[in-house]
Amino acid sequence: MFFLYNLDIWDSDNYIVLDFETTNYMKGDAIYEQNKLIYTSFYYKGNYYYIRDNILPAEFIDLCESVDFIVCHNAKFELKWLARNGLDLTKVVCWDTQIGEYVLRGNNQRIGVGLDDTADRYGVGSKNKLVSVLMKSQVPTEEIPRSILEKYCDDDVYMTHEIFKQQREKIKSNNLLRVFHTRNILTPVLADIESNGACVDTDRSEHIYNNLVNQKLLLSTKINKITGGINTNSPKQLAEFLYETMKFPIPKDSRGNEKRTPSGNLPTDADTIKNLKASNKKQREFVSLYKEYNEVNNLLSKVFEKLHAMEEDGKNILYADFNQTVTQTHRLSSSGKEYKIQFQNFPRELKPLFTARYEGWMVGEADQAQLEFRVAAFLGDDDQAKEDIQNNFDVHKFSASEMNGVTMEAVNKAQRQEAKADTFKPLYGGESGTPAQRKYYEAFKKRYKGIAATQQEWIKEVLSSKQLRIPSGLIFYWPSTKMQRSGYVVNRESICNYPVQSFATADIVPIAVVHQWHRMKQNSMRSFIVNTVHDSSISEVAPEEQELYKEITEQSFTNDVYNYLSHVYGLDFDVELEAEVEFSHHWAEFDNSFKEKWLYE
Fold first, then answer.
1. HEC letters along 48-117
2. How far apart are the first and last CA of the chain?
């Protein structure tokens, strides 16, 4: 795995620049067998070439494996097609010019990172507008005239190559090569994970779907009985019922004015109804029923109707994309594919819908325990935080004791659980809230003086220069930052949050997952990774490989991270990292709460 630590490869001129044109089902993703390659264009050592075959020749795959790196714009797309044609993803690394622009812009989302926007900034041409419009309109690629489609692909390779030559010098001169390298070694890993997909327990999801359908019908019947059968989808009828028939007080804003929709009507949205002030039994009953109905309806529309459609199609593998160039903190995000269910923010309470696809296998979840707190302890060089981490100090009990005015020994289980939502809010600049919350936030600052002082230094730096470089090398920009008369600093929350969240979940976790993936491949394991969510990775694990998986994961999430940060970033990460590895038949099914809530008859 030496190349994972080798920044010198980016000085090489032994590279290939390439782009594919494909049929465009699900944006031409190679995981769908119905998609075909139409045209390949590439640059290598001074010359431009093309391939018109649907199957890439073995010599071309050998060439891609022999070069020091592959240059693409949005490289994950090309990597999946190369892998489909026989390329070993463990043998390649990419210079992704889209990721390059993303790293250069930091959190400035006004700068587009698409090829057209990037090419325009670098002055190296532009895409054929007609082809771009046809593709965005989902016109089948094979129906686009072949001559202009091929030139479109050739132009993309030329522009990507010209961008790369300028971008390479720009990234080096801005001291961003280390963080850029970290972003790019993750790309082949994500290409493989996306191709694996995640397995849904369709029996379990269908059981819940049927229960929710019945529950929705029952709730709808009860609501109709109260409303007299009005059309609750009609804002006019619903407003008349709420404010005239039921006589709910009209909601008011902070200035005491009646709330109105932009068109001047009284509000009838779900959030408004949920927060209506009920003063009698009938009002309370309606609000309760309406709230429950919307929760059920949202679960059906956002999750279970989609899973039901998948089950009706006879499928149980769900696919999603990982977005590498979207979030402001540089952590990954996700987008669903044909069933529109994404992987990054899937409700935790529904994670046990996912299982292993092979009989006898288990789901393995590797988690970086309290990662952002550990990162904050490192960034703040906070001795107290480091000591607490070393001694397994229960910081949730600490927050609960402060908010409830009791000793830590007197904190009960319910108080500790309730306090969890507030424990790490100070890491994100949290200062306001209830008196109990504010009391805890002050106690946090007093206990962890190093973290608090470092946050203040970040704020001072941004007030002065409007930007902040974090230890990875990434630069965040806050041009609108200023101190108001009240003393409040505009952007304070993100200034306190981004350095911690970014270094933890956009650097440390990807470093861990990259090492985990390579070590699993080196050991020729049958087990494979199916997802990564912020501070964790999720795998399907063969029964005979559980011990090896645990050993590899603990190594990857701790010592490999220390070594990488030392060799690549020049950082001595002196805070202990902890990898928690759990096995179960379904993802995150470590207790009975899911079964108790969802698997009722």
1. EEEECCCCCCHHHHHHHHHCCEEEECCHHHHHHHHHHCCCCHHHCCEEEHHHHHHHHHCCCCCCCCCHHH
2. 51
**DSSP 8-state symbol, 252:** B
Tokens of 579: 């990898």
In this structure, are strands 362-368 and 536-541 parallel, antiparallel, or unpaired?
A: antiparallel
Residue whose token pair is 């640059």: 43
Q: Mean pLDDT, to the nearest integer, of 317-346?
A: 95
The owner of tokens 């003393």 is 487
Contact 22, 31 (CB under 8 A): no
Residue 601 has pLDDT above 70, yes or no: no
In CATH, 202-312 is 3.30.70.260:
no
Q: Which residues pair with 354 in a beta bridge?
A: 200
Question: Domain boundaries in the chain?
Answer: 2-196, 202-312, 320-370+504-598, 372-503
CATH 3.30.420.10 fits 2-196, yes or no: yes
Three-state DSSP class for 51? strand
pLDDT band at 408 (very low <50, low <70, confident <90, very high): very high
Q: State pLDDT tens for residues 516-564.
A: 999 999 999 999 999 999 899 999 999 999 999 999 999 999 999 999 9
Fold agreement between 2-196 and 372-503: no
pLDDT at 347: 79
Sheet holding 317-318, edge to edge: 317-318, 198-200, 354-355
Q: If phi over 0 gives left and psi between -120 and 50 gives alpha, with beta otherwise, what is residue 233? A: alpha
Res 97 pLDDT > 60: yes
Quick one: residue 340, left, alpha or beta (phi over 0 = left, psi -120 to 50 = alpha)?
A: left
Residue 152, class by beta-carbon neighbours within 10 Å (0-12 exposed, 13-18 middle, 19+ buried)? Answer: buried
CB 43 within 8 A of CB 70: no
- 235-282: pLDDT as tens digits: 999 999 999 999 999 998 878 888 998 888 999 998 899 889 999 999
Give every CB contact of residue 568 below 8 A, 6+ residues apart in sequence. 5, 7, 178, 181, 182
Are 93 and 3 in contact, with CB atoms under 8 Å apart?
yes
372-503: CATH topology? DNA polymerase; domain 1 (1.10.150)
Strand, coil or helix: 19 = strand
- Supply the mean pLDDT for the chain: 94
| Per-residue confidence band for 349, with pLDDT thresholds at 50, 70 and 90 | confident
Largest CA distance in the chain: 80
**Distance, CA of 247 to CA of 255 (rounded, Å):** 22
Class of the CATH domain delimited by 320-370+504-598:
alpha beta
Q: Are 373 and 385 in contact (CB under 8 A)?
A: yes
